[in-house]
C-alpha cells in the first residue's frame, strides 16, 4: 500500500504551474498508472525525518486495486503519442527556424550591401562636405578680406565725404563754370575725332549730305541745341571716315558669309561714258547685302570673273587683318564654295560666266518676236524707221546702200515706242518735248490733265507694253500733238525723229503691233508682275524657286489663247477670261480702245501676228521656266538656294551709283561711292557698334581707310583702262590691215586675170 503524503511533502511537491484538467487526468486518473523510478525523497537537513518507503509512490489510494497490463500499455501509448506530438512540433520549429535563418541571412546580405552603399555615399558625401567646407572656408576668408577692404573703403569714403562736403560749400561758383563747359563741346578726343562723331558723319553722308557740308551741318545742329563746337571736320577727314564705313561693310559681309552654309549671288553691268561698271549683290540668310560697284576694262566673262575674285579676295584680306578676324582667319575660297545660285541677265557673256561658276542661271528672254509673223504669212511689214544717216544712204540712189540701210534699220511697234519715248520723255532734260507734251494734254479738251509718257530709254520689263497702251488709248491726241509740234515751228517741217514718229503712228501694221503688245502686257505681263513684285504680305513671292505655279499659269493661259484667240480678240471681252489671273486689267481703257480700233485693222493680219507673238512668248516662257519647273526642291533646298524673283537690286544699284552718283560727284572714287552706299544699305552702323566699337577696332578702321586713300586705286584703274583700250585698238588695227591686205590681194588677182 503506497505511503500517504504528508502535508509537508504535499507542500514541497506542489507544482508551480497550474495544470489543466486533462493533464491532471493523465497523471492522477483512476485508470492511469504512473510508475516512479526515482528514489524516495528525503528532506535535506532533516535527520529525524521519517524515511519514506522504497515502494513506488502511487496516487492510488489503498482501496484501489493494482494496475493491469492494459492500463500500463494504455499509459505508455498515451505518453508515446504525446512525445510524437512534441517531436512533430519540434520538427516544425526546426524547419521554421531554418527558414527564418535563411531569411535572416538574406536580410543580413542585403543590409551588408546597403551598408556598403551607404558607406560609399557617406564617403562621397563626406568628401563633398569637406570640399564645401574648404570652399566655405575660402569664401569666409574672402569675405574677411572684403570686409577689411570695405572697412578700408569706408574709411576712405568717409574721408572723401568730408572733402565733398567742403567742396559743396564752394560749389555755387563752380556750377556756372560747369554749365559753360556743357554748352561747349569738342569733336575730337586727344586730337582724334571720336567714334561717336565718326558714326554721325557716316550717317549724315549716307542720308545724302555732301562731304563739304558735313562740318557745317554739325555746327548748325549744335547751334540749334545751344551748343558751341570748338573745332571742325575737314573734307578730307570726312572722306576717310566714309571709307572707314566701307571697310566695316567689307568686314560685315565676310562675317555674314562665315556664319552661313550657303548664299546666292547676283550681278549686272552697265557703261557710263564708255567705261564699264559692275554691280554685285549676295543673299545671306534671306538678307540682301551689297558688294559694291567695280570698274572693269571690258564686259567679257573673263574680266567679270577676275573682278569677282579680286573683290572677294580684298574683302577677306581686310577681314583677316582686322581684330575680329585675326584669331580665326577666313579663306576667300569658302565664299565661292558656299554659292548655291547665281542671278544675272541672259546675255552670252553671262552664260559663259555661269559655266565658270558651275551654276545654272537663266533669265527671261525679252525679245519681241513680231517680224517673223509678217514674212511667214506673206503680209506687208510695218513701215521701216531709219535713222538720219541710214535714210540719207538709202536716198543716195545706190541700191546696195539702200539695201544695207534697210537691213540695219528697225521697224514696228517697239521702234515707235522707243522713238516716242525719245521725243516725249527724253532722259536728257535739255532734249525732247516732254514739257510741251504735258502742257498740250493738260489743255486738250478730251484729256484735261498732264500725262507723262512711259520711260523707254531704260530697258526694263513692261516699258514697251506700257508705251503701246498709252499710244493706243490716246492715238488721236498723239496724232494731233505731232501736227501741233510741226505747225508750231517757223519751218513748218518735222525733224527726222518727228517724221519717223508721224509716219509710224499712221501706219496700220505698226498699229497692229502696238495692239498685240498692249494685249500681252495687260493680260500676261501685269498679271505675272502682280505676283513677282508684290510684297510677301500681300501674296507676292520672295524666292525665285516659288515661281513654279505662276509660270505654269502663264504657259497654260498662252496655250488657251493660241487655240482660241477670240478669248482676247472676240466681242465678248472680259478680264475674267482674258487676263491670266482673272483680275481686272491694269488699264481697262486700253483694252477697250484696242477693241474700238479692230474694225479699222485687217483682222486676218492682226490674228496671224497675235498668234505668232503668243507662240513666241510660249516658247520663251517654257525655256525660262525649264530650270524651275524641271526640278522638285524641298523647302530646305529652296531656302539654301534663295534668290530674289527679280534682279532689281543690281539694276537699281548701277543706276544710282554709276550714273546718278557720278553725275553729282564726277571726281568721286569708287571706294567712296561704295563705302557710302554699302554703309547705308547693309546696316553697317549696327555691325560697328556690335563688333568694332573698341579702341583696337576703331584704330584698325582708321588705318585701313588711310591705306585705301593713299594707294591710288583710282589712278591704277585709269591706267588699266588705258592699257586695255590701247590693246583693243592695236587688235582692231591689225584686223583692219589684214582685211585690207586680203581685199587688195583679191583685187590684184582679178586685175591679173583681166
From TrEMBL:
Keywords: Coiled coil. Residues 53-68 have a biased composition (Low complexity). The keyword Coiled coil applies. Residues 73-146 form a coiled coil. It comes from the Eukaryota. Residues 11-21 have a biased composition (Basic residues). Residues 1-10, 720-748 have a biased composition (Basic and acidic residues). Residues 1-21, 38-68, 708-754 are annotated as: Disordered. This is Uncharacterized protein. It comes from Mycena metata. The lineage of its organism: Eukaryota, Fungi, Dikarya, Basidiomycota, Agaricomycotina.
Amino acid at each position: 500500500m503506497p505511503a500517504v503524503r504528508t502535508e509537508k511533502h504535499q507542500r514541497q511537491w506542489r507544482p508551480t504551474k497550474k495544470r489543466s484538467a486533462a493533464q491532471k487526468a493523465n497523471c492522477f486518473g483512476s485508470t492511469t498508472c504512473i510508475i516512479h523510478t526515482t528514489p524516495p525523497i528525503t528532506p535535506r537537513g532533516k535527520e529525524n525525518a521519517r524515511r519514506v518507503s522504497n515502494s513506488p509512490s502511487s496516487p492510488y489510494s489503498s482501496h484501489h486495486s493494482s494496475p493491469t497490463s492494459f492500463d500500463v500499455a494504455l499509459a505508455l501509448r498515451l505518453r508515446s503519442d504525446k512525445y510524437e506530438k512534441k517531436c512533430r512540433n519540434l520538427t516544425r520549429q526546426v524547419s521554421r527556424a531554418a527558414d527564418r535563418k535563411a531569411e535572416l541571412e538574406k536580410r543580413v546580405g542585403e543590409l551588408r550591401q546597403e551598408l556598403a552603399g551607404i558607406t560609399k555615399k557617406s564617403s562621397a558625401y563626406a568628401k563633398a562636405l569637406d570640399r564645401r567646407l574648404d570652399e566655405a572656408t575660402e569664401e569666409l576668408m574672402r569675405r574677411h578680406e572684403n570686409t577689411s577692404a570695405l572697412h578700408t573703403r569706408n574709411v576712405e569714403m568717409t574721408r572723401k565725404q568730408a572733402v565733398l562736403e567742403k567742396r559743396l560749400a564752394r560749389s555755387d561758383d563752380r556750377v556756372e563754370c560747369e554749365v559753360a563747359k556743357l554748352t561747349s563741346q569738342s569733336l575730337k578726343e586727344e586730337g582724334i575725332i571720336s567714334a561717336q562723331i565718326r558714326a554721325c558723319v557716316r550717317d549724315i553722308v549716307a542720308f545724302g549730305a555732301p562731304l563739304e557740308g558735313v562740318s557745317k551741318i554739325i555746327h548748325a545742329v549744335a547751334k540749334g541745341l545751344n551748343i558751341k563746337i570748338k573745332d571742325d571736320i575737314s573734307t578730307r577727314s570726312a572722306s576717310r571716315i566714309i571709307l572707314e564705313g566701307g571697310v566695316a561693310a567689307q568686314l560685315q559681309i565676310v562675317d555674314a558669309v562665315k556664319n552661313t552654309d550657303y548664299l546666292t549671288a547676283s550681278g549686272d553691268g552697265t557703261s557710263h561714258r564708255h567705261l564699264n561698271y559692275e554691280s554685285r549683290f549676295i543673299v545671306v540668310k534671306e538678307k540682301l547685302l551689297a558688294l559694291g560697284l567695280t570698274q572693269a576694262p571690258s564686259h567679257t566673262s573673263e574680266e567679270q570673273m577676275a573682278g569677282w575674285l579680286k573683290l572677294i579676295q580684298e574683302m577677306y584680306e581686310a577681314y583677316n587683318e582686322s581684330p575680329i578676324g585675326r584669331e580665326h582667319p577666313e579663306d576667300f575660297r569658302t565664299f565661292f564654295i558656299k554659292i548655291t545660285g547665281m542671278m544675272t541677265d541672259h546675255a552670252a557673256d553671262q552664260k559663259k560666266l555661269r559655266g565658270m561658276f558651275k551654276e545654272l542661271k537663266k533669265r527671261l528672254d525679252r525679245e519681241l518676236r513680231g517680224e517673223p509673223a509678217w514674212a511667214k504669212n506673206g503680209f506687208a511689214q510695218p513701215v521701216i524707221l531709219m535713222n538720219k544717216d541710214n535714210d540719207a544712204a538709202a536716198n543716195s540712189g545706190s541700191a546696195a546702200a539702200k539695201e544695207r540701210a534697210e537691213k540695219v534699220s528697225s521697224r514696228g511697234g517697239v521702234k515707235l515706242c522707243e522713238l516716242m519715248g525719245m521725243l516725249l520723255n527724253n532722259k536728257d532734260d535739255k532734249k525732247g518735248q516732254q514739257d510741251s507734251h504735258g502742257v498740250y494734254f493738260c489743255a486738250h479738251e478730251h484729256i484735261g490733265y498732264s500725262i507723262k509718257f512711259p520711260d523707254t530709254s531704260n530697258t526694263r520689263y513692261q516699258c514697251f507694253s506700257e508705251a503701246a497702251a498709252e499710244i493706243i488709248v490716246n492715238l488721236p491726241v498723239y496724232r494731233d500733238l505731232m501736227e501741233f509740234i510741226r505747225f508750231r515751228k517757223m519751218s513748218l517741217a518735222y525733224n527726222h525723229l518727228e517724221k519717223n514718229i508721224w509716219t509710224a503712228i499712221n501706219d496700220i501694221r505698226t498699229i497692229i503691233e502696238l495692239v498685240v503688245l498692249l494685249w500681252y502686257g495687260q493680260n500676261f505681263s501685269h498679271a505675272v508682275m502682280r505676283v513677282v513684285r508684290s510684297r510677301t504680305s500681300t501674296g507676292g513671292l520672295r524666292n525665285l524657286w516659288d515661281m513654279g505655279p505662276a509660270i505654269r499659269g502663264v504657259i497654260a493661259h498662252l496655250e488657251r489663247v493660241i487655240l482660241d484667240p477670240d478669248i482676247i480678240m472676240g466681242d465678248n471681252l472680259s478680264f475674267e477670261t482674258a487676263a491670266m489671273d482673272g483680275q481686272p486689267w491694269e488699264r481697262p481703257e486700253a483694252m477697250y480702245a484696242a477693241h474700238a480700233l479692230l474694225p479699222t485693222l485687217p483682222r486676218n493680219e492682226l490674228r496671224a501676228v497675235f498668234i505668232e507673238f503668243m507662240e513666241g512668248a510660249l516658247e520663251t516662257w517654257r525655256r525660262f521656266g525649264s530650270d524651275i519647273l524641271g526640278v522638285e526642291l524641298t523647302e530646305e533646298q529652296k531656302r539654301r538656294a534663295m534668290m530674289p524673283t527679280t534682279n532689281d537690286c543690281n539694276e537699281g544699284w548701277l543706276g544710282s551709283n554709276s550714273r546718278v552718283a557720278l553725275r553729282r560727284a564726277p571726281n568721286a572714287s569708287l571706294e567712296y561711292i561704295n563705302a557710302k552706299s554699302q554703309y547705308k544699305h547693309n546696316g553697317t552702323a549696327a555691325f560697328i557698334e556690335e563688333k568694332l566699337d573698341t579702341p583696337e577696332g576703331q584704330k584698325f578702321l582708321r588705318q585701313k581707310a588711310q591705306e585705301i586713300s593713299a594707294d591710288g586705286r583710282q589712278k591704277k584703274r585709269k591706267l588699266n583702262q588705258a592699257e586695255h583700250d590701247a590693246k583693243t585698238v592695236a587688235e582692231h588695227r591689225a584686223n583692219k590691215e589684214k582685211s585690207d591686205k586680203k581685199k587688195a590681194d583679191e583685187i590684184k588677182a582679178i586685175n591679173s586675170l583681166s
